[in-house]
Write a structure and sequence with these properties.
The chain has two domains: 285 residues, FAD/NAD(P)-binding domain (3-Layer(bba) Sandwich), CATH 3.50.50.60; 143 residues, Elongation Factor Tu (Ef-tu), domain 3. Helix content is 32%, strand content 14%. It has 13 helices and 16 strands. The strands form four sheets. Strands 10-11-12-13-9-14 form a six-stranded antiparallel β-sheet. Strands 6-2-1-7-16 form a five-stranded parallel β-sheet. The relative contact order is 0.17. The protein binds flavin-adenine dinucleotide (FAD). Flavin-adenine dinucleotide binds next to helix 1 and helix 10. The site of flavin-adenine dinucleotide has 34 residues, from helix 1 and helix 10.
């Protein structure tokens, strides 16, 4: 029987190894800790949570809650461990981090089909089925091997702009226009007067920033990806000559040229979510809400993703991956976790689940499959495999990724509709691709 090699024993790699073994396929899991650590990990445990111990909301009508429902339905080891290590956390799933990662480690160590090797991998195996899950802090030597594999499509830090929910915008203050006149509906514009712009810049430069981790302090920024507050600090006019440039954006009704313009780019065909162009930022979350809601039309903006700039090793997945998480050029190789450009613990586990499931299929001589696009997991992997590579930055699970949403369903009803549709889609998919024995839930009800 062909065995599967998993590189990296974090959230994604641990889940992947479990799903491979669960299908009766032998797996070798390489984890370099504790022999060699990363700047953020502290232990030698598999699936260590490097920062927060919260796995976020459990409510089905939130994106994170729906993702948990799906992972649970699919028999995820990471979610099983989270419930085993659960501590009181209200509507969020919070865990005892030590108990959580020990549970995952012990389950994998005890599985007869899993062999764990504590060593750093420095080259991509030339043969066999391989899952790469080395995470945001991939070791330097392996990053060099990856660079040989994917060339310019490997990044070492992210520059993420916030995404807001279209339903929360005041469209009476916004207008559609593309400064080059190419496509009328490619940008939504928020015009600012001089007073609004000056107040905005002042708030931006004085807002509170995230304290970077020690290993991020030396993070150099490329000029094209400077945090918006850094740009503003260079001088009061800098933004007007950068991302808030008004040239070509005369108001369609008045014909007047605004003093400055914030541009919003649709994130999907239905235009249910918009990213703020050029707004990568290190501001704290509550400061992003306070300052970015000063933009006309965004006074009540609901944030689907917050902006960020981190040290983060990730590939440009839309160029490189299929939505089965296979590497297009060499489909025996899968990628999973943060390295594919997903964001967050459970998104990484979800990637691990799909890569592990598909690697086992491939080992049995079956075709890998994608998840239904109406599920949160399917929508996320569809996004990373098919979104516009030019603007690709790490993405968290959120309802803005969902497609084919009937226009008349809004607000809470929309979230309920999307959650129910996802549940139905996953149940149907399971009937086709998961045998009854492997779908038995490993979790008890909470
Ligand atoms: C400082 C920091 C703070 C974060 N805080 C949060 C947070 O609060 N909430 C959240 O949801 N997400 C957070 N994240 C993102 C978080 O890393 C991911 O959500 C999640 O851990 C990604 O899972 P992963 O499996 O892709 O990577 P990881 O969990 O990092 O796993 C990758 C594993 O690969 C191993 N490895 C690397 N290179 C090699 C090699 N060459 N050979 C063998 N093994 C190797 C590493 O030791 C590691 O165990 C944070 C990230 C960082 C860097």
């Amino acid at each position: 029987m062909q065995r599967v090699i998993v590189i990296g024993g974090g959230l994604a790699g641990s889940e992947a190894a479990w799903q491979v073994a669960r299908q009766g396929i032998p797996v070798v899991l390489y984890e370099m800790r504790p022999v060699r650590s990363t700047p953020a990990h502290r232990t030698g445990n598999l699936a260590e949570l490097v920062c927060s111990n919260s796995l976020k909301s459990l409510e089905l009508t939130s994106a994170q809650g729906l993702l948990k429902w799906e992972l649970r339905e699919l028999g995820s080891l990471i979610l099983e461990a989270a419930f085993q290590a659960r501590i009181p956390g209200g509507k969020a799933l919070s865990v005892d981090r030590e108990k959580f990662s020990r549970y995952v480690t012990e389950k994998l160590e005890a599985h007869p089909l899993v062999e764990i090797r504590r060593e750093e991998v420095t080259a991509i195996p030339e043969e066999g089925i391989v899952i790469i899950a080395t995470g945001p802090l991939t070791s330097d030597a392996f990053a060099r091997a990856l660079q040989d594999l994917v060339g310019e499509f490997l990044s070492f830090f992210d520059a993420v702009s916030p995404i807001v929910d279209a339903e929360s915008l005041d469209f009476s203050k916004l207008y559609w226009k593309d400064r080059h006149g190419w496509d009328h509906e490619s940008y939504l514009n928020a015009p600012m007067t001089k007073e609004e712009y000056d107040r905005f810049v002042e708030a931006l430069v004085s807002a509170e920033k995230h304290e970077p981790h020690d290993f991020e302090k030396s993070l150099g920024f490329f000029e094209g990806c400077l945090p918006i507050e850094e740009m503003a600090r260079r001088g009061p006019e800098t933004l007007r000559y950068g991302p808030l440039k008004p040239i070509g954006l005369e108001h369609p009704e008045t014909g007047g040229l605004p003093y400055a313009v914030v541009q919003l780019r649709p994130e999907n065909e239905e235009k249910t979510a918009f990213s703020l162009v050029g707004f990568q930022t290190q501001l704290r979350i509550r400061e992003q809400e306070r300052v970015f809601r000063m933009i006309p039309g965004l006074e009540n903006a609901r944030f689907l993703r917050y902006g960020a700039v981190h040290r983060n090793t990730f590939i440009r997945s839309p160029v490189l991956l299929l939505s089965t998480l296979q590497f297009r050029k060499d489909p025996r190789i899968f990628f999973a976790g943060q390295i594919t450009g997903t964001e967050g613990y459970l998104a990484a586990a979800a990637g691990g689940w799909l890569a592990g499931f598909n690697a086992a299929r491939l080992a049995r001589g079956e075709e890998p499959v994608a998840l239904p696009e109406h599920t949160m997991m399917g929508a996320l992997f569809r996004y990373i495999a098919t979104s516009n590579p030019r603007y690709f930055q790490p993405m968290n699970p959120n309802f803005g990724l969902m497609i084919q949403i009937p226009k008349h369903i809004r607000g809470g009803a929309r979230r309920r509709f999307l959650a129910e549709r996802a549940q139905e889609a996953l149940r149907r998919w399971k009937e086709t691709f998961l045998s009854a024995s492997s779908t038995t839930s490993v979790l008890s009800e909470d």
